[in-house]
Amino acid sequence: MPEAHPTRRAGGALRFWLFGLYLACYLAFMILTAFRRDVMAWAPFGGANVAVLSGFALIGAAIAFAVLYLWLSRDAAAAPEASR
Amino acid sequence: MIYTPSAVAVVVFATFILLVVGLSVWLGRRARSASGYYAAHGEIHWLVNGIAFAGDYLSAASFLGICGMIAFYGYDGFLYSIGYLAGWIVALFIVAEPLKRMGRFTFADALDSRFHSRSIKLTAAISTLVVSLFYLIPQMVGAGALITPLLGLPHVAGVLLVGVVVTTIVVTAGMVSTTWVQFIKGSLLVLFCFLLTILILRRGLVVDAGTGDEPFAYRPVQSVLARPDLEVLPKAGAWAGKPYTRLRNRSTGLVEVWREEGRGDAARLTETQRVTVTPSGARLIDGLPQGRGPGQRDLRPVGHVAAIGEHVRGISSFATGPLGPAAFLRELSDATIQLWASERIVEDDGGVTTIYFQKLTKGADLLTAGASPTFAGVRSAKLFDKLDFFSLMLALFAGTASLPHILIRYYTVKDESAVRKSTVVGIAAIGIFYVLTLFLGFGAMTSGALDVTNSNMAAPLLAKSFSPLLFAIVSAIAFTTVLGTVSGLIIAASGAVAHDILNNVLGHQLTDTRMVQAGKIVAIVVGAIAMVLGVLFERLNVTFLVGWAFNIAASANLPALVMALYWKRATKQGIAAAITVGMVSSLAWILSSAQAFRDVYGLPATSALVPFSQPAIVTLPLGFLVLVVVSLLTPAQPDRAAEAGRPGPQSMGRG
After folding, report:
1. Chain A residues with beta carbon closer than 8 angstroms to that of B81
2. Which chain A residues touch B92 with a CB distance below 8 Å?
3. How far from chain centre, in Å, is Cα B568?
4. Distance from CA of B280 to the nearest CA of A (A)
5. SS in 3 state form for chain A?
C-alpha cells in the first residue's frame, strides 16, 4: 500500500466518531417523532416545542460538527508537515 | 388562481436570465477540454465551490416545495429540511475525501478506480441517468409553476423556457459556468430568504376584521339555510354520503357547496371553494368560468390567522406587531390558523370537482409532525405507516451523498483539503437556509396570499404579500435556482453517457474534443426529455418528487460507494450487482406504492402492491446485503488502484 497522504490521516477516526454521534442524534430524533408525540409537543420555554428545538439542534449540530472537523483536521494535517 | 403579470416582474426576470446566459457564454471560453467541461479544470476556489454546493442542493424542492409544505401543513415540511441537511454529514464524513482521491470526472470513476470493470461503469452510468431524470422532474415542474404568475404564461412555457436556457448554459460552458451560476444563485437565495424572514418577523401575526379580503364564512347551519333565495339539493349521485350541503340559488341557478362541520348545537356550515373541470375541459370556479370579468369567478387567496386569543377574523382586528423568532413561534402556537384541505368528487356527468374546504387548526398542532399526507404515518398506530416515515428520513439522510450532481462537484476543486473546506461552507450555507424555511413557511401560511390549488407557489406569493418588486426578485431567484440545479443534473447525466458509457464502456476512445461534443449532444437530449417530463408531472408537489429521487439515489449508489471506498473484499460483481438491485428494487417499489397509484396513475391507493410508499428502509439494506453476498461468492480481485500507486479503499477508523 502506498504511504497515506497527510490529509488522509487528517481527521482520521474523528470523522467516524462524529458521524456516529450525529447518526445517534438523528435516530433519536426519528424515534421521538414517530413514537413520542407528547414529548415533541412539549414546549419547555413556551412557544417553540421540542420538535422545533430538536430540529434546530440537529441543523446546528451538523454545522458545528462540520466546523469542528475542519478545525481539528487542519491541525492534524499541519502536524506531519511540520515534523518533516 | 389567475395571476396578473407586471412589467416589473418581466424586467427583473429578463435581467436575471440575460445575466446568467451572458455569464455562461463569457465563461464558455475557458472550457474547451473534457477536464474543463466536466470538472472546471479542478480550479474552482473552495469558497466559491462551497456556496455552489448550496446552489446545487437548494433546488426548487428546497425553496418552493418545503416552503409550500410548511405553509399548507406546518412542521412536516421542516422534516425535509432536517433530513436534507443531515445527509451532508454522510457526504462530509464518509464520502467526500475518498471520492475526490479516487475519481476524475464522475462518481463512476471512483467506483471503478479499483476494478476497471465495464459492468460497474455501465450500471453506475445508468443509475446516474435514472436519478438525474427523477431529480429533473420536480425542477421542471417548479419552473412551470413559477413562470405562470411571473409572466402570465402557461406551465408548459415555463418548462420550455427553463429547458432551453439550461441547455444553452450547459452546452456553452459546462461545469465552469454551472459553478458560477450556482454560486450567484446560492448567495442570492440565502440572502433574500434572510430578508424575507426579517420582513415576516417585523409583520408578526395579524387577525383581520374583514377590512382586507372578505373572510370565508363559518356559520351556524340555520343561518345559512334560512336564506329564502336558496333551495337545498338532495345528496344524490356522487354527493351521496358526503359531508356537503349544496344550495341552489333559485334566481341564478348557481350552486353553492358548504361543508358540514360539528354536530348538534356546534353544527356549522363552512364556505368552500371548488374547481370543476367539465367533460369538455372547461374550468369552472364555484360553477362559473374562471376569470375576472363579469359572469366569471376566480379562486380567492387563502392563508389566514383565524383567531388569536379573543380576536376572531372577520369580527375584530389584532396585530402582534414585530416579533422575535421565539415570540413568533409562541404566538403562532397559541393562534388558530385557517388551513385548507381538499376532496375530489367525480360528478355523474364525468366532470371532476375538487372541493377546497376550511380546516381550523390550533397553531400548536402545526408545530408537531404528522399533519400532511406524507408524514401522517407518525400519528398512526400502524407499524407500516411509521416505517414509511423512517424510510423517507433514511432516504434523505443517505441520498444526499449519492446524488450525481452533488458528487461531481467534488472534482471541481484541486485537492481533498479544498473538498473538506467547500463541503463545510456548503453545510453552513445550507443549514442557515433550512432554519429560515420554517419561518418562510409559517410566514406564507399566515400571509393571506396563498393559492389553495398550488403549494409550490407559497414562497413567491409570500414575497408578493410584501411588495410586487420583492415577488419579482424572489421568483426570478427561484427560477435561477431551477436553472442552476438543472444545469448540474444535466452535466452529471451528460458525463454519465459521454464519459462513462461512450468512452469507457463502449470503448470509443473519444478524443478530448469529441468527448466534450458528445457531452453537449447528450445534454440537449436530456434537456428535451426533462422538458417532456416537466409537462407530464405538472400537478405533483416538487418535494414529494424529490423524495423519490433521494430513495433511488440512496438505494442504488450509496452501498456501492461506501463499500468501494472502504471494504477491501468488495468485488466488481458485488458493486455492479448492488447498483442494479438497489436501483431496480427502489424504482419498482416506488412505482408500486400507494403514492404512485393515487397521484400518478389516478387509481385507488388501496390497490398499491407494497405496504408503504418510501422504499429506502428495505432497498438500501438490500443493496448492502447483495454487495456483501455477491462479493463473498466471487473471487477477491486485485486492487488496480493500489497497484498503480493510487489510493485504494481505507479501513474504518484509520482514516
Report:
1. 55, 59
2. 15, 66, 69
3. 37
4. 45
5. CCCCCHHHHCCCCHHHHHHHHHHHHHHHHHHHHHHCHHHHHCCCCCCCCHHHHHHHHHHHHHHHHHHHHHHHHHHHHHHHHHHC
Q: Which of B333, B397, B420 is nearest residue A26 as measured by Cβ atoms?
A: B397
Question: Cα(B540)–Cα(B601) distance, rounded to whole angstroms?
Answer: 12
In the block, cell 379573543 appears at: B310
Instruction: Please report residues of B whose CB lies closer than 8 A to that of A22.
Output: 86, 89, 93
Name which of B82, B84, B328, B329 to mutate to probe chain A: the one with the most chain A Cβ atoms within 10 A of its Cβ: B82
Contact B386, B76 (CB under 8 A): no
| Contact indicator for B275, B281 with CB cutoff of 8 Å | no
Whole-model pTM over 0.95: no
Residue-wise pLDDT tens digits, B3-54: 777 788 888 888 888 887 787 777 766 656 666 666 677 778 888 889 988 8
Long-range contacts of the stretch B461-465 (C-beta < 8 A, 24+): B461/B149, B461/B301, B462/B67, B462/B71, B462/B196, B462/B200, B463/B196
Q: How far is B653 from chain A (nearest CA, A)?
A: 4
Per-residue model confidence as pLDDT tens digits over B283-332: 999 999 999 889 999 999 999 999 998 888 888 889 999 999 999 999 99
Cell readout for A24 is: 445517534
- Which DSSP state fits B450? B
Amino acid making up residue B488: G
Q: Report how far residue B596's alpha carbon sits from residue B143's, in angstroms, rounded to the nearest whole number.
A: 22
Predicted confidence (pLDDT) per residue in B110-138, tens digit:
777 778 888 888 898 888 888 888 888 88
CB contact under 8 A, A52 and B655: no
**pLDDT at B644 (0 to 100):** 58
Report chain A residues whose CB lies below 8 A from the CB of B421. 70
Cβ–Cβ below 8 Å for B329 and A52: yes
Quote the pLDDT of residue B571.
92
Partner residues linked to B302 by β-bridges: B450
Instruction: State residue B525's pLDDT score.
Output: 87
Say how far apart CA B426 and CA B179 lie, in whole Å. Answer: 13
Q: By three-state DSSP, how is residue B305 classified?
A: strand
The cell for B359 is: 380546516
For testing contact with chain B, the best of A25, A63, A68 (most B CBs within 10 A): A63
C-alpha cell at A76: 492534524
Q: Is A27 on the interface with B (CB under 8 A)?
A: no
CA distances from A34 to B69, B87, B512, B537, B610 (A): 19, 19, 52, 30, 21
Residue ranges, chain A, pLDDT below 50: 1-9, 81-84
CA neighbor of B455 nearest in space, from B138, B215, B218, B216: B138
Q: Give the span between the Cα atoms of B203 and B340, in whole angstroms.
A: 23
For strands B318-319 and B206-207, give the pairing.
antiparallel
Distance from CA of B635 to the nearest CA of A (A): 20
Enumerate residues 38 to 67 of chain A having a beta carbon within 8 A of any beta carbon in chain B.
Answer: 40-41, 43, 45-49, 51-52, 55-56, 58-60, 62-63, 65-67
Backbone torsion region of residue B204, taken as left when φ is above 0, otherwise alpha when ψ lies between -120 and 50, otherwise beta: left
With an 8 Å Cβ cutoff, are B368 and A37 in contact? yes
* Close Cβ partners of B124 (under 8 Å, ≥ 6 residues apart): B106, B107, B108, B111, B112, B496, B500, B557, B560, B579
Instruction: Identify the segments of chain B with pLDDT beneath 50.
Output: 651-655
Query: How far is B543 from chain A, CA to nearest CA, in Å?
Result: 18
Nearest to B417 among A12, A46, A77 (CB): A77
Distance between B439 CA and the closest CA of chain A, angstroms:
11
